[in-house]
Amino acid sequence: MFNILIAEDDQELRGLFSHVLEKNGYTVTGVSNGREALEATDETYFDLIITDIMMPEMDGYELVRLMREAGSSVPFLMITAKNEFDDMREGFLAGTDDYMTKPVNVNEMVLRVGALLRRAEMMSERRLTIGGTVMDCDSLTVTVGGEKQMLPQKEFMLLFKMASFPGHIFTRQQLMDDIWGYDSETGIHTVDVHIGRLRDRFRDSPDFEIVTLRGVGYKVEKK
Fold first, then answer.
1. Using CA atoms, how far apart are residues 40 and 157, in angstroms rounded to an integer?
2. Strands 3-7 and 48-51, bridge-based pairing
3. Alpha helices in 52-180 (DSSP H)
4. How many CB atoms lie within 10 A of CB 201?
5. 1-21 pLDDT, tens digit each
């Protein structure tokens, strides 16, 4: 079960977020500012942190920045009343992974949380082996028979995601949300383009093949 920390000084809003996430199967801890959030992370491991920006004692920007400087890779979802582009840019520069503005659609929040957790879970497994093929997240390389090739990031993540669950069917929308992000403005057919490139690269692979299920999605099958 995933463990989520919410840093939000509005008690009613914090309670609402906690209630919705708990109904969706998550374990939730709530704090009222960034300093309390830092203290909580010293005592407990969290799979994801949701933080407001404007909070007493320590704001969301500083919270994210300090944790990134300390080497934390925990996913952050920043939720704030600020909706100017400069505020969003500052959040991403600080190290947040996603951004929502108030008033928050809690159903959308649940979708974003799920996408962030899936992406983090995928990248936490840094190396994958199928037969004689080795996929390495740190170098974005795929090695087959001693020959190594580096893939563009999105192509690598797409292949790694599907290869991590051989035989599992992924819809285009699932792949889009997990690899490009829930709020990406990129057209969904970019998934087809990247799949086509991957299929060309690994058409002769002795270990796996990329299978299209027309009208449904894609999967990687072991040979």
1. 31
2. parallel
3. 60-69, 85-94, 106-124, 153-163, 172-175
4. 16
5. 789 999 999 999 999 999 999
